C-alpha cells in the first residue's frame, strides 16, 4: 500500500494489520500516527525495528502507569533496551515523590536513525550498511532541562552475517539520567529513602547514588535483589566527599541532626563484611565497621586485598594490630600494622610470635625495655631476631647467658661486644667454639687473639 493511501484509512483493524505486516517503515510510521489501539501502539513501541516508528507510536501513547509498566519489561533486572528504558524513565516521572517535588516534569524522547558502512572482504568494492539508532532523553520542567542523556548504537568492527535488514539498537542507561535528576531536584532524605524502594531498579539506583544515610545504604547493599542497585550503594558508601558535605550540612545552624545509629547498623555491617559473596560489598562494609575483632579477622584473612586494606584502615586497638602483624597473609598489611604499633607489649607479641622475620626484626628494633628484649633473646627461635635483641641489650646477666649459651656464633659475638663482665669475657675467650667470638672477647680484655685460649 502506498503511503498516501494510508492517510485515507480509518479502519482500525486494517491499520493494525498494516502496523505489523508492512515492510516499508514509512508506511508503518504513518499507521502508528493514525492508530488508536493502545495495545497495538505499545506493541510497536516494544517490537518495531525502526526507531522512527517506535517514536511515533510512543508519542501516541498516553503515559498511563499500566501501559508503561507493560512496556518497561521485567523490572526485576536492569534493562538496556531503548523502549523499556524510556518507559522506565516515564514511570520515574510518575513516582509520587518526583511529581510532588518537580511538578510538570516531562520525559522528552528523540530517536534518530544512524548507520555504518562495511566493505565485504573478497567482493571488491561491494559495501553493505548496518542500521542503528541514536536515543536522546531529556527530563524537562517547563522550558528547563533538569537532566538528560544520549546513547548511540555501538557498531561491531565487522558486519555479522545475520545482520541483513535488521537494526542494531542503542544500549540505553536510564539510571544515568535519574542519578542527575535526583541530584539537582532538591529531594529530601525521606523522599530519597522512599524512591530507594521503587519497583523500577533504575530509580533505586538514582536514589542510592544520592543518599547519605549510611545505615540505609548498608541495608540496600544487603537486601536489594538487583546487583546494579547494590553496586550503586557500595559506590556511595565509598564517596567520602559526599559524606563530608553531609556532615557539614548537619552541623549548620538550625540543621536537624539525624537520629544516632544504633548497634543494628554495626551488626548489619559485620554480617555484610564477613558473609557477602561480593568483595566490593565486603570492602564497603569493612570501611564502616568499628568492631575490632571482626576487622582483625578481615584484615588478616579475607581473600581480597581491597577488603583486607579497607578493614585495616579502621583498626585502632594495639593488640588487634599486633595480631595483624603476626597473622595477615598480606606482607604489605603486616608491615603497615607494625608501623602503627607503639605499645611495648604488642611489639613484644609480634617479636616473639611473628611468622615474618622482617616484621619480627622491625618490632625488636622498636623495643627499648630491657626485660622485654631479654624475653625476645631467650624465646625466639630465629637467630636473626635474637641477634637484633642482643645488639640492643645492656642487661649484663642476659648478655652473659647469650655470650656463653646461644647456639648462633653471630648472636654470641654481638653479646660479647656489649659485655663488660671480665670473668665472662675470659671464659668466652678461652672456651668459645668459634675463633671470631674468642678473638672479640680477647680484644675486649686486651689479650692478643693467639693467647686467648
Approximately how much helix is present in the residues? 55-70%
Structural class: mainly alpha
Mean pLDDT across all amino acids: 84
Question: What is the overall shape?
Answer: elongated
The description of the largest β-sheet is:
3 strands, antiparallel
C-alpha termini separation: 121 Å
Percent in strands:
5-15%
- Strand order across the largest sheet: 1-2-3
Sequence stretches where pLDDT stays below 50 over 5 or more residues: 242-264
The count of β-strands is 3
Rg over CA atoms, rounded to whole Å, is 37 Å
Q: Count the helices. How many?
A: 28
Summarize the structure.
By secondary structure, this protein is mainly alpha-helical.
Topology record:
Elements: H1 3-6, H2 12-21, H3 25-32, H4 38-47, H5 51-60, H6 65-71, H7 82-93, H8 96-101, E1 105-119, E2 127-141, E3 144-152, H9 174-184, H10 189-195, H11 201-208, H12 214-223, H13 227-237, H14 240-251, H15 263-275, H16 279-286, H17 292-301, H18 305-313, H19 318-327, H20 331-339, H21 344-353, H22 357-365, H23 370-379, H24 383-392, H25 396-405, H26 409-418, H27 422-431, H28 435-445
Antiparallel strand pairs: 1-2, 2-3
Helix pairs in contact: 2-3, 3-5, 4-5, 4-6, 6-7, 7-9, 9-11, 11-13, 12-13, 12-15, 13-16, 15-16, 16-18, 17-18, 17-19, 19-20, 19-21, 21-22, 21-23, 22-24, 23-24, 24-26, 25-26, 26-28, 27-28
Characterise this structure.
The model is unreliable at 242-264 (pLDDT under 50). The chain has a 3-stranded antiparallel β-sheet. It is built from 28 helices and 3 strands. 58% of the residues lie in helices and 9% in strands. The protein has helices at 3-6, 12-21, 25-32, 38-47, 51-60, 65-71, 82-93, 96-101, 174-184, 189-195, 201-208, 214-223, 227-237, 240-251, 263-275, 279-286, 292-301, 305-313, 318-327, 331-339, 344-353, 357-365, 370-379, 383-392, 396-405, 409-418, 422-431, 435-445; strands at residues 105-119, 127-141, 144-152. By secondary structure, it is mostly helical. It has a domain at 3-61.
Amino acid at each position: 500500500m502506498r503511503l498516501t493511501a494510508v492517510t485515507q484509512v480509518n479502519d482500525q483493524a486494517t491499520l493494525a494489520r498494516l502496523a505489523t505486516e508492512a515492510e516499508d517503515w514509512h508506511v508503518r510510521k504513518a499507521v502508528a500516527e493514525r492508530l488508536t489501539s493502545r495495545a497495538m501502539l505499545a506493541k510497536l513501541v516494544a517490537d518495531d525495528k525502526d526507531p522512527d516508528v517506535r517514536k511515533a507510536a510512543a508519542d501516541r501513547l498516553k503515559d498511563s502507569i499500566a501501559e508503561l509498566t507493560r512496556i518497561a519489561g521485567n523490572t526485576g533486572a536492569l534493562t538496556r533496551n531503548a523502549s523499556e528504558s524510556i518507559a522506565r524513565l516515564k514511570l520515574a516521572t510518575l513516582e509520587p515523590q518526583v511529581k510532588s517535588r518537580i511538578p510538570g516534569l516531562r520525559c522528552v524522547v528523540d530517536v534518530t536513525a544512524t548507520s555504518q558502512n562495511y566493505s565485504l572482504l573478497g567482493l571488491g568494492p561491494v559495501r553493505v550498511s548496518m542500521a542503528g539508532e541514536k536515543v536522546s532523553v531529556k527530563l524537562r520542567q517547563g522550558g528547563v532541562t533538569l537532566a538528560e542523556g544520549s546513547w548511540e548504537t555501538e557498531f561491531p568492527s565487522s558486519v555479522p552475517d545475520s545482520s541483513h535488514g535488521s537494526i542494531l539498537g542503542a544500549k540505553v542507561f536510564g539510571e544515568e539520567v535519574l542519578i542527575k535528576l535526583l541530584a539537582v531536584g532538591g529531594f529530601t532524605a525521606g523522599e530519597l529513602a522512599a524512591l530507594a524502594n521503587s519497583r523500577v531498579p533504575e530509580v533505586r539506583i538514582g536514589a542510592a547514588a544520592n543518599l547519605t544515610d549510611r545505615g540505609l545504604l548498608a541495608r540496600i547493599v544487603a537486601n536489594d535483589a538487583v546487583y546494579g542497585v547494590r553496586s550503586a550503594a557500595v559506590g556511595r558508601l565509598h564517596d567520602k566527599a559526599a559524606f563530608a558535605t553531609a556532615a557539614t550540612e548537619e552541623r549548620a545552624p538550625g540543621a536537624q541532626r539525624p537520629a544516632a545509629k544504633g548497634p543494628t547498623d554495626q551488626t548489619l555491617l559485620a554480617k555484610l563484611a564477613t558473609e557477602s559473596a561480593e568483595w566490593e560489598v565486603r570492602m564497603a562494609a569493612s570501611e564502616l565497621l568499628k568492631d575490632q575483632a571482626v576487622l582483625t579477622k578481615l584484615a588478616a584473612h579475607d581473600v581480597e586485598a581491597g577488603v583486607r586494606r579497607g578493614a585495616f584502615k579502621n583498626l585502632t586497638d594495639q593488640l588487634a594490630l599486633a595480631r595483624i602483624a603476626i597473622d595477615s597473609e598480606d606482607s604489605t598489611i603486616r608491615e603497615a600494622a607494625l608501623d602503627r604499633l607503639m605499645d611495648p607489649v604488642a611489639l613484644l607479641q609480634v617479636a616473639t610470635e611473628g611468622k615474618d622475620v622482617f616484621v619480627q626484626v622491625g618490632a625488636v628494633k622498636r623495643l627499648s625495655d630491657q626485660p622485654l628484649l631479654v624475653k625476645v633473646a631467650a624465646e625466639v627461635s630465629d637467630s636473626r631476631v635474637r641477634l637484633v635483641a642482643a645488639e640492643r641489650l645492656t642487661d649484663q646477666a642476659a648478655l652473659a647467658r647469650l655470650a656463653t649459651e646461644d647456639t648462633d656464633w653471630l648472636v654470641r659475638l654481638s653479646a660479647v661486644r656489649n659485655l663488660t663482665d671480665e670473668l665472662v669475657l675470659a671464659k668466652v675467650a678461652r672456651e668459645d667454639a668459634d675463633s671470631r667470638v674468642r678473638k672479640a672477647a680477647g680484644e675486649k680484655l686486651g689479650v692478643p687473639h693467639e693467647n686467648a685460649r
